[in-house]
């Protein structure tokens, strides 16, 4: 009998702990804490607390409800699910206010599963995958240009996405380290061509604290299938985006509110059963 170990041990605690661990190894967030002036911390902390106080008064929150919140918040930390919670329910507004000046391509949230320094594959190549990786083969071609119109040769396209079961390498067990993660560098015309597979929709782990909130509130736990990218070039703003597939049943009710019409792919079915997609990026020069 064959045992599907990926499904058996892909627990919320395992993927949450990996996401928390990853955030700890990146020291830049801690520098930001130190460098934020006290006036700013004071203003933000007061506003958030005032919004909490207003909700308690308006809803006349009981002690049972207050203690349920306390227990739940303790569990989110124990599960390592703060990165998941924040990226699913908060990040989309941070992304909105920080990119609303841009004239180039739309972006969206990064989410909890980015890992830097994925294997380099040049301008044309196949992302790291297992022998016989399940899923529909996908050939993606595109070009990176600047809002001035010039092609950006040497631009870097970092791609990461879930497998055909909805699992990410380094956050679900039993998957090779760099599976479905790759770095591509555009040619002189700014062009790239990536071979990968079409990912499956992603379900928030149901056995952790975020899953408990979803169940308790009667929400659903799904994100539509998506490709994550970071696109960068010297002198240009880093673009973090996700691309989606038309017809996914959760494109209109993404739990993370990260779908935009500009991020929709137009896949073309090929006679051999694979799909091709053509999607490029326009980067904004860094503001003077
Ligand atoms: C994901 O794959 C994701 O992209 C986000 C934003 C949240 C949880 C899982
Ligand atoms: Fe994702």
UniProtKB/TrEMBL annotation:
Q: Which family does it belong to?
A: Belongs to the intradiol ring-cleavage dioxygenase family.
What are the protein's UniProt keywords? Dioxygenase, Iron, Metal-binding, Oxidoreductase
Q: Which SUPFAM superfamilies match?
A: Aromatic compound dioxygenase
Q: What PANTHER family does this protein's entry cite? A: DIOXYGENASE, PUTATIVE (AFU_ORTHOLOGUE AFUA_2G02910)-RELATED, INTRADIOL RING-CLEAVAGE DIOXYGENASES DOMAIN-CONTAINING PROTEIN-RELATED
Phylogenetic placement of the source organism: Bacteria, Bacillati, Actinomycetota, Actinomycetes, Propionibacteriales
Task: Outline the extent of the Intradiol ring-cleavage dioxygenases domain.
Answer: 109-285
Q: Please note every region of biased composition (Low complexity).
A: 10-20
Span of domain Catechol dioxygenase N-terminal:
39-105
Recorded protein name is Catechol 1,2-dioxygenase
Q: Which InterPro entries match?
A: 1_2-CTD_multi_dom, Catechol_dOase_N, Cchol_dOase_actb, Intradiol_dOase_C, Intradiol_dOase_core, Intradiol_RC_Dioxygenase
Cofactor(s) listed: Fe(3+)
Disordered: annotated span: 1-23, 101-120
Q: Which Pfam families match?
A: Dioxygenase_C, Dioxygenase_N
Q: Which organism is it from?
A: Nocardioides humi
